[in-house]
Known about the structure:
By secondary structure, the protein is mostly helical.
Amino acid sequence: MAQPDERISYFTSLCEQLYNPKSSDGSIQNILEQSFPIFSSSSTATSTMDDNIPFSFTIATPTDTASALRILLETSPSPYVQMFCFSRLKQLVLAQFTVFERETQIQLRTFLLEYAYLHPDLQPFVMIQLAGVFTLVTRLGWVDLEEYQNVYKDMDQFLKTSAEHRIVGLQILGVLIQDMNTSTIPKYAAKFRKAAAGLRDSQLLPIFNDVYTILNNLLVQNMHFDKPDQENRTKDATLNLILRCLSYDFAGTSTDEAGEDTGVVQVPLAWRNIYENEDFLSTFFKCYHSFNPPQATKVMECLVQLGSTRKALFSNEQARTQYIAKMMQGIQEIILSSMHMSDSDCFNHFCRLLQRFRVLLATPMETHMEWMTLIAQFTQSAFESCWTPCFYLLSFWSKIVQNMQYLQQLEPEVVVKLEEITAGLTGTFISNYVERVPIMIEDMLDDPLDDEESLLESLNMLGQIARCKYEKSCASLVDIFDPIANHYQELIHQANENVLKEAFPLFEARFAWLVYVMAVFIGNRPPYLNSDECDAADGTLITKVIQLLEINQSLQQHSSLFLSEKMDASIVYFFSQFRRSYLGEPNADAVYNKPNEVFGIEGQTDMLNLMMRKIITNLQCWGESVMVIKRSLELFDDLASGYSALRNIRKIESTQMIMQNHLSHEFSLFSSDRHRKSRVLYYQILCKILFADEDDCESEFNDFMKPFELRLHNLNALDSIEEFQQSQRALLDVFRDLRAFIQPIQTRRHYQMFLKWFYPTYMSVLKRGLEALSPHPEAVILLKFFGEFIHNKNQRLNLDVSSPQGVLLFRDASQIINTFGQRVVNLHITDENQKYPSKYKGIAACFNILARCLGGKYINFGVFWLYQDKAIEAAFNMMFQFMLNIPLDDMMHFPKLSRAYFMMLDEFSVEQMMFTSMMPNEAFLYILEGCELGFAVPNSWIRTNSCNVINNMCTFVIQENLKKTNKRAWFLNYLHPHVLDPLLSTLFGLILFDDNNDQWQLSRPLYTLVLLERDFASKYTNQVILQQLPERREFVTKVLNNLMEGSGWTLSTKDREKFSQQVSTLKRELNNNQIVLVAI
């Protein structure tokens, strides 16, 4: 036995190397984990100690590990040792707390407190780790151990000793309350909720009272400090603890603080006295004025929570009114003094305080108009000085406007005042950006228009504010727009192109901003609180946008230099908001008065036509902008969404022009590969429009397909592989477009039109094209088209009973798979980055084709077997070659490949696997090994498919064994125990040792495997029992016996469901008793 000091020195050295590594091989961590096992995994539970480790502790149980870590902590002052010991102790407690005897559990908690008390000078990161262990122990033992429930009493000795101990106590309490308030580990959810509720009901208020007293003493400087930095550290710890107390999840709902509009602090009634204390709020405002940032920022965060207090907390209306008055007074003093407003964090949290302070929901506004006017002045100043929109201030005023409709008894003068305020703020906010555009361009500052998502989040609230006095807000917007538009037209009329080009970026940014603002104004039209006056104001905005649109289009026709991506994106967004607010509205005639007067737009049809013309223009002009093309097609898709909308848009002249010229070379999205995704959306929309008329669309369909016919006829006329290769672009484009076109088709009637048009007339083009392009990656486009073509979604491909097309389609599928497969299986790629795009992507497409054929339910595979048609054998043989050509690691590494493979296997195992006697032994073992790996992947689809494959196979074997016939299925000879046992072990292990939510799926194949291997299942469960710690064996034996003995062990649905329920019961029992099984 080594001397203790040598052993401590050795482990101290290891800990220092762990946190200051010289290499990344992980050997140091492995040595430390072996030396201090936590008995929760096979690596620590079953592995023997490395012979190269010179020193060690004698450890046989989790208690021994805890004792060894304690010895190391008590004998080594190194912060690296302390960090490792506490982190390892936390893992040990989480895994094995229930194994500790009651006395050990109490001693562990006592040791942590004593260690913190004796070492108040610990490094901050070590103290946080210690507090984390203390919190975890407290949460786990709260329900069962009364000693754990005296947190306040335990920490009181820290708070009343020295200044350093006081800081330590505040830090530990801060971590405790924060961790108690966090989301829970699922297996301990019930216990942790009880602990959190217990802390809230019995400990949180005394803690808050004490820390509030400390804050008062800090404010009046009635505290003694031994070191210069202790005062600031005490302030930080105190304010952190107060903030965490106020942020506690009192209601137990884990409200997401990101949702600012729902953040009401549900303070318990027991806290009423302290909230109603006369000096309570004033103390925090005094601290804010007395402290400097960052402590002042923390005080403001506390005030945010205090300003979010629920109304029902107060004992009566007078108490609530007094609280609100003090909050308003404090806010007023901060605004008048501008205290710490130059600090960005303080400013932002102060704005957040205003946003969360729901005074207007609680009391009449008449008594607070002076205060509201002050807030308006502050907001006005903020809008004028801040470059970026202030989200919280906009949210504050948008809430006021929303609440005004619920407060019906407001005095007329109050309403008028609020309308003036909101209209003024709206104008200031808009003009602020317009005036700052030259500075932005000159100094190359970030443009808010570049982040449309964030911009619209703020502007939508501006639209809500504008609705308070909508006509005046619109007038302000027009007053800002008109001078800019007039100046713009003057430059155009001067015909000085150089001057206009130089000024164009300035106009572009201003117009784009103003059009976005107009869009949110219209988009916030309330559906049930509208008026002809407001609709007429919207009509004025629409007129301005159309005016700008026509000017820009005339400029763009003159020169492409005047194309503006930002401006066109804003106009598209404007049209999308108009569609949402007005299209389909029966009582919105007033909105068209002004457009009709100026441009002759009389109603929805004319407006639809205008929007479609803009979409067509964008498709023609914006070949260089993926964003504009994408947004334009998204607008087109929105216009074509819904039955009525589809019927309306089909009648539009511009839509008919697109339908008749959908492949026009004038559309720039066909000129570049960067618009591939947009082309897909384009033809999906056209498909919906084409088939919108259920009565008679066959003639329109034939007309629509004529451009495709021309392209396919040209390709069909090619005689050689070389000519197909030279026409590769045309070949890929036509099948990419056709795939997009047939994707939305849902009905059998419509799909039969396409099937009749395409098949078999143009099937030869696909086959010869695939032969020309294979095995190059471009061939995948053709494979994907065929995969969509034979996809029987929504039963659209259901064929008549006497139809031979199902057989013919599978023959073609077999030929296509073999044409591509024979070339790709011989393709050797060494570059890991090129494996998927160059080889595996095409194989995945072939797997999808097979899966859709096998699962489509429209192909009579019995015909192939009956007449010994070689197509089915050829398809399956190529499938086996695909599998054996892909290393299993690669199969599991690429998500799309593995998804397609397991989906195909799932369909294959339903029936066809049982009759495919030509499967190579290697392929069968490959399938089993792949399924075993598939059980453990996080992707639920792959896991489900893997479980289905094994379940189907085992179910078939059991059924065959019950028949007791001499004729046996081919793969029965391969399902030996050495094949099945690893599968059973893997499934059992995932259920017993893995924390996943797929017990039901895993239980299905496990049940059939246990039926086949009852003896091995019994041996396995015995091994699991023996592997557990002695204290747990009795309990584990009981739950495993309940699992294995409660079923009738037949293939009936009742017995299968019973076993699945028992699996769920087993997992629930383990979680409720906080037992983590040691894996074997």
